């Protein structure tokens, strides 16, 4: 019997949702008082038969009808396009831009608000001429990293008299990616933990910022001024800098352990991993990330940082998650964890009581047995 009723109930529910999405109307405080006044005058007119009261009632009802018709024209025929930034960092303002197009041929749209389901920020458009477009934006901020889905945009207005608020939903799917903070004070890790790092130094070589002198080259804006060779720069009349050998093992592999309960400590660990990546960018050091099943290969620069932050925005913590391992050389990785684990060259252990935005960390260097 229940299965027989499930189909009609579901169809009725979907039909009601479509009707509700098409238009919704609600009273404002002024509109409620005005409507109750009109009902009172109508009741008095029917009891007394006074023509003046009937005339007043007709005027008030006409006022309500005109208000409903004009508010309908304001939001009817509007088309909205949303423009989102690639991502936003926790605690920073997110500006969502909207382009509102009025497809009505004769009437402008006035005093329209734009809202998103689940977001507190609202945008406002004062005027969109017939056949024209207008731009506006809303401001929002987030206190947790993650991916926030967007489904509908709600247009609303109380034009022209502020008595009723009419709303209309437009399906507009999308998502907001919220990156974790990457400005925590973190200790500089020692990946490789002593002799293994020295062995790796002998195995690989690449261009870098410090190490054995290699050659001179033209100065670039991101170079350290301490590397400028002033005598050669004066002779060539163009700044040149010293270039050094840097070992390939200086790639910072950041391993985030996801086998922990979700909570403040886990979120603090994510912020530590993001801060290590940002630190590597500041040091012009290549880096990569391993977090559960997700991996970001070796790279450097702001683009690599964005790829790492995208992965960190999506990771999920669970007690049943497999331990994080970098299969090629775990002893050369930096483990970020709530509880710690053996076998890594360096570890940054986040205290169980740590909270996001608090530098409650301790660093340990790996040792060989």
What does this structure look like?
The chain is α+β, with helices and mostly antiparallel strands. It is 31% helix and 34% strand. The chain has seven helices and 17 strands. Strands 1, 3, 5, 6, 8 and 9 form a six-stranded mixed beta sheet that branches. Strand 5 (109-116) and strand 6 form a beta hairpin. The relative contact order is 0.11.
Labels describing this entry:
alpha+beta; 17 strands; 31% helix; disordered C terminus
In short:
By secondary structure, this protein is of the alpha+beta class.
H and E string = HEHHEEEEEEEEHEHEEHEEHEEE
Q: Approximately how much beta-strand content do the residues carry?
A: 25-35%
Number of distinct helices: 7
Instruction: Please bin the fraction of helical residues.
Output: 25-40%
Please identify the structural class as seen in this structure: alpha+beta
Contiguous uncertain segments of 5+ residues: 191-209, 358-369
């Amino acid at each position: 019997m229940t299965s027989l009723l499930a189909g009609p109930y579901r169809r009725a529910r979907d039909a009601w949702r479509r009707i509700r999405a098409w238009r919704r109307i609600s009273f404002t405080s002024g509109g409620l008082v005005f409507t109750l006044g009109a009902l009172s005058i109508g009741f008095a007119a029917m009891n007394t038969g006074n023509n003046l009261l009937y005339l007043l009632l007709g005027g008030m009802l006409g006022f309500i009808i005109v208000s409903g018709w004009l508010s309908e024209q304001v939001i009817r025929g509007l088309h909205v396009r949303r423009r989102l930034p690639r991502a936003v960092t926790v605690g920073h303002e997110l500006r969502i831009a909207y382009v509102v197009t009025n497809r009505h041929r004769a009437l402008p749209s006035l005093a329209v608000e734009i809202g998103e389901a689940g977001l507190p920020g609202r945008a406002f458009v004062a005027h969109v001429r017939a056949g024209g477009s207008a731009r506006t934006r809303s401001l929002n901020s987030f206190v947790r990293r993650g991916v926030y889905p967007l489904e509908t945009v709600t247009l609303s207005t109380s034009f022209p008299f502020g008595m009723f608020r009419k709303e209309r939903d437009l399906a507009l799917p999308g998502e907001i990616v919220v990156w974790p903070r990457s400005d925590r004070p973190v200790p500089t890790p020692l990946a490789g933990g002593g002799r293994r790092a020295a062995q790796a130094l002998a195995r690989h070589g690449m261009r870098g910022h410090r190490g054995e002198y290699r050659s001179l080259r033209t100065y670039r804006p991101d170079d350290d001024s301490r590397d400028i060779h002033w005598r050669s720069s004066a002779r060539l009349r163009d700044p040149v800098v010293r270039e050094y050998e840097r070992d390939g093992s200086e790639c910072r592999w950041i391993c985030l352990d996801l086998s922990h309960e979700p909570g403040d400590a886990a979120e603090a660990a994510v912020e530590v991993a993001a801060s290590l990546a940002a630190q590597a960018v500041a040091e012009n050091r290549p880096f990569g990330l391993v977090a559960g099943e997700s991996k970001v290969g070796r790279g450097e620069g702001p683009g690599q940082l964005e790829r790492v932050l995208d992965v960190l925005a999506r990771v999920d913590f669970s007690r049943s998650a497999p331990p994080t391992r970098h299969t090629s050389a775990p002893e050369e990785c930096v483990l970020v964890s709530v509880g710690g684990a053996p076998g890594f060259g360096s570890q940054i252990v986040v205290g169980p009581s740590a909270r996001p935005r608090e530098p409650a960390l301790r660093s340990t260097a790996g040792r060989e047995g």
